[in-house]
Design goal:
- By secondary structure, the chain is of the alpha/beta class.
- It has a single domain, classed as Vaccinia Virus protein VP39 (Rossmann fold, 3-Layer(aba) Sandwich), CATH 3.40.50.
- Helices cover 42% and strands 24% of the residues.
- It is built from 11 helices and 7 strands.
Length: 256
């Protein structure tokens, strides 16, 4: 992906923030259990900065665990949706490459579906600056479970439709990019958490349609694919309820 393409895709969510908030998957309680276990400390009462918070899906769950959360989000559209969803949670505009946060001010920095939009040459030093000694940097992604046949087949169709540039990272480069720490100061522990949810077929289609690859290729292009995809899904789920299965890729590093 070129730098200009990367930027275009990163900004594409702002026009679809409401769709994103309504249809994207959440995260299971087991994920936050794992974060606490790997960090060696509880989220309850911890000062947490949720970076690239988007519409607040992870932020809301962190707050529910008892964390004192502040959100950081670069996109105007996503931040506006966040404020509608979580009006009592503070949010500031900024990115992981230049955090608008004080030095040694956070016990946890969390990036849900967001680290790959940063430049680690900047975001790693910034994370280490903002974390308190012994604080934890936690990165995670919901990834599609490609061992489920219908999910694998859908992934192939998306890749074919968009010329191989799909929404599922088959080679795990998202996780590898997180491990590409140019400072050599971070040492990540890696775990996977598998979970699933059941949603109506139209919500599933709205979910995948909120991914950047659909947004940047235009509404007409996306609509054509999603109409055909609906027929494929109803052949597998004739009752119209789709079981989406995810594997959360979780990485946690402790700051110095």
């Amino acid at each position: 992906m070129t730098a200009s393409s990367h930027t275009t895709r990163a900004h594409s969510f702002n026009v679809a923030a409401a769709q994103y908030a309504a249809n994207r998957p959440s995260y299971p309680p087991a994920l936050f259990d794992a974060v606490e276990d790997m960090a060696g400390r509880s989220l309850t009462g911890a000062r947490v900065a949720d970076i690239g918070a988007g519409t607040g899906i992870a932020t809301a769950l962190l707050r529910a665990r008892g964390a004192d959360v502040i959100a950081v989000e670069p996109g105007e559209g996503m931040a506006a949706q966040f404020r509608r969803s979580l009006p009592d949670v503070p949010i500031v505009r900024g990115s992981g490459n230049a955090l608008p946060l004080a030095t040694a001010s956070a016990d946890f920095l969390t990036y849900a579906q967001a680290w790959h939009w940063t430049d680690p040459a900047h975001s790693v030093p910034e994370a280490l600056r903002v974390l308190r000694p012994g604080g934890a940097l936690a990165l995670w992604w919901n990834t599609s479970a490609l061992d489920v046949p219908w999910i694998d087949e859908q992934t192939v169709r998306i890749g074919r439709h968009f010329g191989g540039d799909g929404i599922v990272d088959r080679n795990g480069s998202g996780v590898r990019s997180a491990l590409a720490d140019p400072t050599g100061r971070l040492h990540f522990e890696h775990r996977r958490v598998r979970w699933s949810r059941h949603v109506p077929v139209d919500r599933h289609l709205a979910n995948i349609g909120s991914h950047s690859i659909f947004l940047v290729h235009g509404e007409e292009n996306a609509r054509a694919f999603l109409a055909e995809e609906r027929d494929h899904l109803l052949a597998v789920f004739p009752d119209g309820i789709v079981e989406e299965t995810y594997v959360v890729e979780l990485l946690v590093a402790i700051g110095s």
